[in-house]
Amino acid sequence: MIKRPPLSEADRIWFPALICIAIIGISSAGCIATTTPADPIRIGVLLPGSGPVAVHSLDGLTWAAGAMNRQGDRTIELVYRDTSAGNISAHAEELAGRDDIDIVIGPATSTELIEIAPLVTGRGKLLISPSVTGEIDDNSLFWRTCPTDDRQVEAMFRILSETGVRNVSLIVANAPYGETFARFAPAAAAANRIRITGAVSVDASSDFEEIAMRIGEEEPGTVVAAVYPEEAVRIADALSRAGSTAGLFLTDAGHSPYLLERLGERAEGIQGTALFADPTTGYAIAYEELFGEAPPSFAAQTYDALLLAVYTAARQEAAPGEPLAASLRWVVSGDGIAKGWDPEEAGEAAAMIRAGAHPAVTGASGPLRFGDHPSEGPLAGYYTHWTVEGGAFCESTPVSSAGGEPGLPGLSYDPAAGEGVRPVVWMVYPMAKGDRSFADSAYRGLFRAQESFSFTKRECTYADIPLLDAVFSLQNFTEKPDLVITEGFEFTDASRAWAEANPDIRFVTLEQAEFGLPNACDVMMVPYGASYLAGVMAANITRTGHIGAIAGAPVPVIDPFVRGFTEGAAAYDPSVDVTVRYVGENAEGFGMPERAGALARDLRAEGVDVILMIAGASNIGIVDTARETGDIYLIGEDTDQSYLAPNLVIASVVKQIDAIVYRAVANEINGTFRGGREVRTLEDDGTMLFVSPRFDAYAGVVADWRERAVAAEGEYLKTALL
């Protein structure tokens, strides 16, 4: 894991000067620009560095600017003013008054926007907010990278309806943020057949005890609160003191570390909605790899605000004299080569824009596409339903507010880059990132390699098979790869054909077959031993004597999971019953969460109280069902999945996919690639059973049985068809 220490409050105050010294090597006294084409792109930032609404990740913004600087040929300089310290109007006037700053990222809240928008856009500068979600008057110079609150209201009441809520009491902040929710809530509630039993507006002076007593008289099933974190804490405490049994459901503003810090264990069970990154982009994985924690609510939207600023500056260079608003409008209407969010793709996109090309740009939070009124935000946003479990926010799979199919930039080469400058690595996943399992683990290793080595990466999925077949068979490479990594049994035939037809390209295949080609390293991760330990642990922890497994499909790669789990349980206690169910008959079963959830419900009805999840992206349906019943323990797959539900996921059968992908790239960079078969097992730590932190008490059982699991796996390998 790559970790960077967070900026202290003092560091954040001096952040602009430090950027000037460290990045461009000039005095911190003003950072005055000259007029050469190589001048830094200076972008103002008006966001809080501390306090309840500091949920944007300034550390992530700093990393993004630094990483783009390493990739591109223009230096990005962030001129940051901490809105949690000092007067925001004074900060806004200062940045807007500078001739070397045309674009400002911020502010954080609707109230602040009303205060500073005239100061910034009134001077002809662009203002891009990552988190203002309330309604505002249309302004061509104000853009935002988050959808408006009406979309969150719709998502929120849809989630409430799906979880069986029929009566709610509504509490909103006495501010523009709360007023928007109050306006849209009645229609959204009615559309989802939910009755609002009462509504009240609150601020710091409100009597929360009296409000809690009134809610008790209304007897709602849930209290929905569109308030800031300070008010959310006071509401939670007041409801508790009043003895209310109603659940508390918060909006995105409540998804703040402040809530957990102030409430502690009292936060358990609180739910809500929040904006999230498009899971197919991998931004959340990259963020966690960098900082050791999930990104805060508006981190992805803040990153995207930086992207829009950088791309607009590039367009201004290509089209001097074009109005700023027109340049940004041009940027988001791209119809050329698709470019993703990460620093490599962003650097290429900016260079292409400066050269006059018109790439289709995508952000960390999703597609950067806007309607006629940019102040209304992007056309699509991703929302997640979160629950506080084990002292942490546990999010469901994010869902787009506007539908759409997941996708990757694919072979989004930079035609201006030429060949041979850096090694080119193609990563081909079985499905788009966001499965919280196999694909995500591979991307984690790829991103870690990006942070360590200099190479060009391209990403595709099984959906790109027709294109890849044509490229490899015809050798029609616009940008020829040096290394291709294919992940998943689905690629067995394709990988063999591609490697045979292209002996000068090196291939690393995961979970496929032994091809016996000098240019192919075929890696198999055998999870039998780790699954054997999972069976031991499940047999030890079950109260009913009935355990189960839900698998994506009855395919060869699943066999060692099922065999190991079943035989481990039998070795520990022969009386334990094991039931195995399959979501589907083929690879589609790994992407059917609703079907998997229904199977989990059936198993629970049959008395099963521990379930091994080996269904890829379908696992989230199993988790949702377990959260509903609250009395099923789960065992994850491929990667540590305890974050899905810390109170329920007792362990995970882990394959070191990320380590294998990282090593594959490292070997390519270092010239140490070796073809042939590579088998990774429990004995060599290629697989393992990771015991979740809250269930450390069972770690002893796992340790005691490890040698027997290794021996059993050795017997399995004697006859297994890998």
Quick one: how many beta strands? 27
The computed structural class is: alpha/beta
Individual helix count: 24
Largest sheet, strands/sense/barrel = 8 strands, mixed
Taken as a percent bin, the fraction of beta residues is 15-25%
3D architecture notes:
The chain is of the alpha/beta class and 722 residues long. It has 24 helices and 27 strands. Helix 14 (343-354) links the parallel strand 11 (338-339) and strand 12 (360-361). The chain starts with 8 loop residues before the first helix and ends with a helix.
Features:
19% strand, disordered N terminus, alpha/beta, flat, 722 residues, eight-stranded mixed beta sheet, six-stranded parallel beta sheet
Task: Produce a short descriptive summary.
The chain is α/β, with parallel strands linked by helices. 39% of the residues lie in helices and 19% in strands.
List the helices and strands and how they pair.
Elements lengths: L8 H5 L1 H10 L16 E7 L10 H14 L4 E7 L5 H9 L6 E3 L4 H12 L4 E4 L12 E3 L4 H14 L4 E7 L2 H16 L3 E8 L5 H11 L3 E5 L2 H13 L5 E4 L6 H7 L7 E6 L6 H9 L7 H20 L5 H8 L6 E2 L3 H12 L5 E2 L20 E8 L2 E4 L3 E2 L23 E6 L8 H15 L3 E6 L3 H10 L8 E5 L4 H10 L4 E5 L9 E6 L2 H14 L4 E6 L7 H14 L4 E6 L10 H13 L4 E5 L4 H11 L3 E6 L10 E7 L1 H14 L5 E5 L6 E5 L7 H6 L1 H14 L3
Parallel strand pairs: 1-2, 1-3, 3-4, 4-5, 6-7, 6-8, 8-9, 9-10, 11-12, 16-17, 16-18, 18-19, 19-20, 20-26, 21-22, 21-23, 23-24, 24-25
Antiparallel strand pairs: 10-13, 13-14, 13-15, 25-27
Helix pairs in contact: 3-12, 3-14, 4-5, 6-7, 8-9, 9-10, 12-13, 12-14, 15-22, 16-17, 18-19, 18-24, 20-21
